[in-house]
Design a protein that fits this description.
single chain; mainly beta; 22-stranded antiparallel barrel; three-stranded antiparallel β-sheet
């Protein structure tokens, strides 16, 4: 009840105060969903929302790297039913059975970072990061409410409000909440995100300040799966009441807390150019000084208070009943970058532009790992403070608005992870508006092992492999093609990975860090196409992956997502869509999951059966509100009674969901 009262109070504050809330959860700018939806509205006829939404634009940290680019908010129907961060059409996941619980990518997605990493990523899909924050320019106050209800099984709430305090100063905040109760006992995900942010721009547009603070509290109950296995097989046992089915764990839980503050300042020296088109506006400097300060404090803990009668975890090394293992990381980052741009003056489009970035980054870490007894005394306490200094550099040349070339360098030359580097090259070639554009890319990465691989000390696991593990080297080349006219995109990615790190099974219920000596090859090919015939649409996406180490890189060979739907507009403003989504992946050796370490690992080589999963939905938009009704997994019982994505953890049953997105401009 206290949580409900707190949420209602927060909602009232959002709508009453001027310095409130901003940004949609997990929006990916690179996928151009905003631009696609806006383009669709422009081509499809009048929409009453557009009249007011044109006064609200936003940017993000990614959109301010070289210039200040703002784009309009999205008010269309596109993708509003795909609200779940673990059920995105082009980024499928595997997990332990519920929104809010541990999940990882189904497709191969290598980490592109270097330097220190604590290594706890099982709940990353629910984390609000600085790159997710939007900074607005709002000529009128803007508020968005997004709510999804699937009875008590699944509820999602997103609130944001933003408005200009002055013409050149905006402030806002955001609140997100996920509450999900699984079909089985002790299976709940409870995630809370909040942020406050501001954007100040001087009247001459030379000085900009972006600041935000993000708060994440992620709670995930761990039931260790139900006792019965193979329940979806033809000869499997029938479950009369799933909630009454005994589970292997009854009190275990994860608690992740992440708090971070970021302050970014830029100052333009010399001439300032600008461009403006219907969907994007750019302010282009010739000289830029950037300073960024980041402070983060993260805490990861696993707790249980019960006898592990079913041997889900290795026997407790200190206490068989009680476990309270924690890892805390405090991180302070200072980054300074000077940027120089040399371009012709007065051109209608940018050509022969030279760009040079030179910078330095300092990272300080205070790392702590400890274990608590029931009386709160520590049976283990490890503390380490260290730093990294990274050299940053970028060299780019834009030959014209059709061709550019960019080189990017990150090299840690002093500190705990000295020797880590990321070298990247990328080129964009616009063939024509008819024939599309090509993107060529390549990178070379040398990355230190994550800390959870190097050293871990808890009640159930202990290892110290600091002097044993080597850095992981990754060489990658990519080819991308996009044709907006024919609504087609394709990509080819090749990865050569040396000394790959993963968790392997150790005994009947344990895990151990393992490093594959030698090379692993993986080829990933993807393609997407949007077909249209009158008012009917088919959005198709397929991925093919091939590796020479199937038992180590556990990922399906083929994944596909297809959405068939029909557009219908009534009275010129009431837009509707009715559709069906089908997703499928080929069988492969699935991952297993260890609750005590919060890590996915390569367990027994079991290829779980796969069948298509079908969802049906209907969406409607009128004035400022968009609504949808969605029935997840409507074909349950047709091919089989359910499915797994991780060993022993059944996925949710069919579920009817209702959602609404409502925008307010005053």
């Amino acid at each position: 009840m206290r949580k409900i009262i707190a949420s209602i109070t927060f909602c009232l504050l959002v709508f009453c105060f001027a310095n409130s809330f901003a940004q949609d959860l997990k929006t990916n700018i690179n996928n151009n969903k905003d631009l696609d939806s806006l383009r669709k509205k422009e081509e499809g006829g009048a929409d009453s929302v557009v009249f007011n939404s044109k006064f609200v634009r936003y940017t993000s940290y990614k959109l301010t790297k070289d210039s200040i680019r703002t784009i309009p908010i999205d008010t269309g129907l596109t993708g509003i039913q795909n609200f779940s961060p673990i059920a995105q059409p082009r980024r499928p996941t595997v997990g332990t059975g519920l929104l809010g619980l541990a999940a990882t990518s189904m497709l191969f997605e290598p980490s592109r970072t270097i330097g220190f990493d604590a290594g706890f990523h099982a709940l990353d899909f629910y984390t609000l990061n600085h790159d997710d924050i939007r900074f607005y320019q709002a000529r009128s106050p803007f508020t968005r409410l997004y709510y999804v209800s699937g009875s008590d099984k699944e509820q999602v709430l997103q609130l944001l409000h933003t408005q200009n305090i002055k013409k050149n100063w905006n402030a806002g905040a955001q609140f997100n909440r996920i509450g999900a109760n699984g079909d089985y006992f002790h299976q709940r995900g409870d995630d809370l995100n909040a942020s406050v942010f501001t954007w100040y721009q001087s009247t001459n547009k030379r000085y900009n300040l972006w600041a935000d603070a993000v708060f994440n509290t992620l709670k995930a109950q761990e039931n260790g799966s139900i006792l019965k296995e193979g329940i979806f097989e033809p000869t499997g046992e029938t479950l009369v009441d799933k909630l009454a089915e005994p589970t292997r764990l009854r009190t275990a839980k994860q608690l992740f807390r992440k708090t971070s503050l970021m302050l970014k300042q830029t100052y333009f020296v010399g001439r300032i150019d600008s461009t403006g088109v219907s969907t994007a506006q750019n302010i282009l400097p010739t000289n830029k000084i950037t300073y960024t300060l980041t402070y983060a404090k993260n805490a990861y803990s696993f707790k249980k208070d019960e006898d592990d009668a079913y041997n889900v975890l290795p026997k407790g090394l200190v206490d068989d009943i009680f476990t309270n293992d924690s890892t805390n990381v405090m991180h302070v980052q200072n980054e300074f970058v000077y940027s120089f741009f040399l371009r012709a003056k007065g051109s209608s489009f940018i050509k022969n532009e030279l760009k040079i970035d030179a910078g330095i980054r300092h990272d300080f870490y205070d790392y702590k790992q400890y274990g608590l007894l029931r009386d709160t005394t520590k049976y283990y306490d490890h503390t380490s403070a260290f730093q990294n200094i990274t050299l940053l550099g970028t060299l780019g040349y834009r030959f014209s608005n059709r061709l550019d070339l960019n080189l990017d360098v990150q090299q840690i030359f002093q500190g705990e992870n000295a020797g880590d580097f990321m070298y990247e090259a990328k080129s964009n070639l616009l063939l024509s508006n008819k024939f599309g554009r090509i993107t060529l890319g390549a990178y070379l990465q040398n990355k230190s092992p994550e800390e959870v691989f190097r050293r871990y000390y808890g009640n159930h696991y202990r290892w110290n492999l600091t002097s044993v593990l080597d850095r992981t080297k990754t060489a990658s080349a990519s080819f991308g093609y996009v044709n907006d006219k024919y609504k087609f995109d394709a990509a080819v990615n090749y990865y050569l990975i040396t000394d790959y790190l993963y968790f392997a099974q150790n005994g009947s219920n344990g895990i151990i860090p393992t490093q594959k000596s030698g090379d692993i090859n993986l080829l990933k090919i993807s393609a997407g196409k949007k077909f249209t015939y009158k008012s009917f649409h088919l959005d198709a996406y397929v991925v093919y992956q091939k590796t020479d180490s199937k038992n180590i890189l556990r990922t399906p060979e083929v994944y596909t997502f297809n959405s068939l739907y029909k557009d219908q507009t009534f009275f010129k403003v009431f837009k509707t869509q009715i559709g069906i989504d089908v997703r499928y992946n080929t069988p492969y050796n699935n991952l297993s999951y260890s609750p005590a370490a919060s890590q996915f690992y390569n367990g027994d080589a079991i290829a779980l059966g796969t069948k298509p999963v079908v969802d049906v939905w209907v969406k409607a938009g009128l004035r400022r509100a968009n609504l949808f009704l969605k029935y997840d997994y409507v074909n349950q019982g047709l091919f089989n009674g359910g499915f797994y994505t991780v060993n022993k953890y059944p996925m949710p049953d069919r579920l009817l969901k209702f959602g609404v997105s409502w925008n307010f401009y005053d």
